[in-house]
């Protein structure tokens, strides 16, 4: 019974023994049975306990009974990315002292981890998830699926630090019949995108798009559609002009909804489409605009700076002195933020800009490709693996060429 749980929580919080609580009211044994819900009791006893503990038990019961609904509201606000509402509900939940010891504690902590991921506070989220992992056998079926989802999101958000196969390991285990949160389709789409499974990524992206539209979540619908567009890049039957029009339509939508961050992501993706087709001037323009929409303290800045310099270098669109200055900026920031992934990418750019061919391919062979391969960074494995293959063929290193071709 809820009354017993509440009495026990506040008794322990007050550092009272059962004997102290029951003194002059009932026996210690009776207190124990009330707390464990093992006996009937009169309202008068609960009122006496309440006065001794200085609490309103009925108010606590009403709050607890509404807690499930309150947590669902918080989860929905997180999915909608309504940051002010998310923070407001979090503050309200933190006022419920009993939540930490209630049957909703794990649900609350999982959503708290999700909250910190939303705010890019990944270290806090990691610590929460690590603690919950130790409780694995005690999770309810719903909590188990929520845990899998939040873990998958964590590894997506931290993909530069972990294997790109990590998110799918968690997300594919979710049972939607139990979980019923169709937002997970979006993260499953990203997970398949990370391992270069384009058909599956597109399929789940389409399901996510339907869900976001049905729930009037227009901001996230933009995310889902932009993810779908990425899967069409290498499709030989894709009409490129139509693809560009879809990107431009989404970019206009971000302007209307004042979604600066999503506009930056779309411009970055559009830049990739032009880069992939060797339209370097158009790619550079997109990357430059995307770069202006993100703060230097955001890790996304490093990605966009890398793309901007890479395009300038490939298209011979900037002076060597300017390129090296921008590359050194990237290296400094990557070191400052302990970003090994980007540090490696900027070192590659520097060696290429300096024209040191043997050092460039030596660095790919000894450091860059093994690093990308160990973390299953498919895009960079393919790109730099292909460069290494061509270099081996040109320099008559045929055994190495065969070995690398089997890895990409």
Written account of the structure:
By secondary structure, the protein is mainly alpha-helical. Among the domains are: 64 residues, 434 Repressor (Amino-terminal Domain), CATH 1.10.260; 53 residues, no CATH class. 75% of the residues lie in helices and 0% in strands. The chain is built from 24 helices and no strands. Helix 8 packs antiparallel against helix 9 and helix 17 runs antiparallel to helix 18. The longest helix has 18 residues. 38% of the residues are buried. The mean pLDDT is 93. This is Helix-turn-helix domain-containing protein. InterPro entries: Cro/C1-type_HTH (IPR001387), Lambda_DNA-bd_dom_sf (IPR010982), TPR-like_helical_dom_sf (IPR011990). Pfam families: HTH_3 (PF01381).
Based on the model shown, name its key terms.
single chain; 408 residues; mainly alpha; 434 Repressor (Amino-terminal Domain); 24 helices; 75% helix; 0% strand; elongated; Lambda_DNA-bd_dom_sf
């Amino acid at each position: 019974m809820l009354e017993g749980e509440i009495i026990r929580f506040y008794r322990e919080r007050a550092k009272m023994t059962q004997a102290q609580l029951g003194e002059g009211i009932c026996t210690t044994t009776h207190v124990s049975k009330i707390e464990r819900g093992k006996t009937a009791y009169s309202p008068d006893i609960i009122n006496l306990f309440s006065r001794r503990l200085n609490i309103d038990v009925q108010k606590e019961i009403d709050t607890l009974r509404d807690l499930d609904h309150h947590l669902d509201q918080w989860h929905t606000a997180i999915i909608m990315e309504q940051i002010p509402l998310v923070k407001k509900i979090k503050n309200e939940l933190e006022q419920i002292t009993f939540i930490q010891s209630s049957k909703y504690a794990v649900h609350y902590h999982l959503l708290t981890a999700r909250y910190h991921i939303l705010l890019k506070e990944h270290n806090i989220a990691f610590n929460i998830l690590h603690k919950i992992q130790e409780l694995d056998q005690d999770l309810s079926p719903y909590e188990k699926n929520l845990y899998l989802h939040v873990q998958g999101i964590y590894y997506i958000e931290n993909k530069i630090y972990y294997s790109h196969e990590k998110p799918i390991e968690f997300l594919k285990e979710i049972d939607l019949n139990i979980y019923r949160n169709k937002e997970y389709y979006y993260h499953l789409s990203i997970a398949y995108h990370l391992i270069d499974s384009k058909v599956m990524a597109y399929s789940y992206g389409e399901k996510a798009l339907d869900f976001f539209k049905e729930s009037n979540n227009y901001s996230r619908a933009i995310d889902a559609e932009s993810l779908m567009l990425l899967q069409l890049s290498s499709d030989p039957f894709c009409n490129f002009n139509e693809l560009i029009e879809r990107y431009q339509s989404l970019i206009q939508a971000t302007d209307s909804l004042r979604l600066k961050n999503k506009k930056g992501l779309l411009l970055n993706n559009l830049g990739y489409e032009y880069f992939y087709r060797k339209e370097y001037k158009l790619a550079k323009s997109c990357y430059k605009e995307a770069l202006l929409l993100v703060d230097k303290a955001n890790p996304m800045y490093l990605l966009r700076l890398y793309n901007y310099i890479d395009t300038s270098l490939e298209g011979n669109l900037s002076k060597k002195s300017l390129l090296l200055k921008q590359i050194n900026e990237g290296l400094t920031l990557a070191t400052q933020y302990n970003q090994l992934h980007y540090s490696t990418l900027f070192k590659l750019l520097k060696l290429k800009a300096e024209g040191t061919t043997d050092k460039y391919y030596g660095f790919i062979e000894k450091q860059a490709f093994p690093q990308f391969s160990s973390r299953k960074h498919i895009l960079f494995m393919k790109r730099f693996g292909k460069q290494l293959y061509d270099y081996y063929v040109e320099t008559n290193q045929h055994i190495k060429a065969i070995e690398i071709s089997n890895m990409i």
